[in-house]
Amino acid sequence: MFSQTMVNLVSLLLPLSLFINIISLPLPARAISSCSGPCNTVDDCDGQLICINGRCNDDPDVGTHICGNSAPNGNNNCQPSGTLNCQGTSYTQYRCSPPVTSSTAAILTNNDFSQGGDGGAPSECDESFHNNSELIVALSTGWFNDKSRCGSLIRIMASNGRSVEAKVVDECDSVNGCDEEHAGQPPCRNNIVDASDAVWNELGLNKDVGEVDITWSMA
């Protein structure tokens, strides 16, 4: 009788022990895509978010502002950093640009990236001049983010429904200007995508217009 009782008890406990072992197994790691989600390592955060103080947040080295006001500095307002006087005219200087989103509003301008063109010095990313048949752009200082976007592709969307991918090769300086390095041009505004002829052509835009409202995102 005693042995039969033990057998019955074991038969009851065995499934229970297996169930406990199953539920005690570690759950597979799951990346957290939302801002401010808990994290321990950089791999816990999706996309361009990184782990800062145990929370997924924007990467300050990349310059994205996916998390809006939850960014480490808690402030995405881009304030002027000073003024530069150029031939009697004062130009606002910026070291920052508006937040980068999936549809970042910007102004498209035209730049000649070839030697002797209105771009002045060689492109900052590779210290080279470029043919204007290349799909290339220069970004305002804040978006250029100290060369962190060099070589990256961005997607530019025009209001006519056309879009194109272009490579970042240079900075549209929002701080300095009016000198030989900048071909005498004043500082860029902080929301400029300065594009080659090829980009304008692909978008079906007339570069003689000078400026066109567009949106862009990382490709």
TrEMBL record:
Keywords: Secreted, Signal. Transmembrane segments: none annotated. GO terms for cellular component: extracellular region. It comes from the Eukaryota. It is found in: Secreted. Pfam families: KWL1 (PF24300). Its main location: secreted. Residues 1-31 form the signal peptide. Belongs to the kiwellin family. This is Kiwellin. It comes from Carya illinoinensis (Pecan).
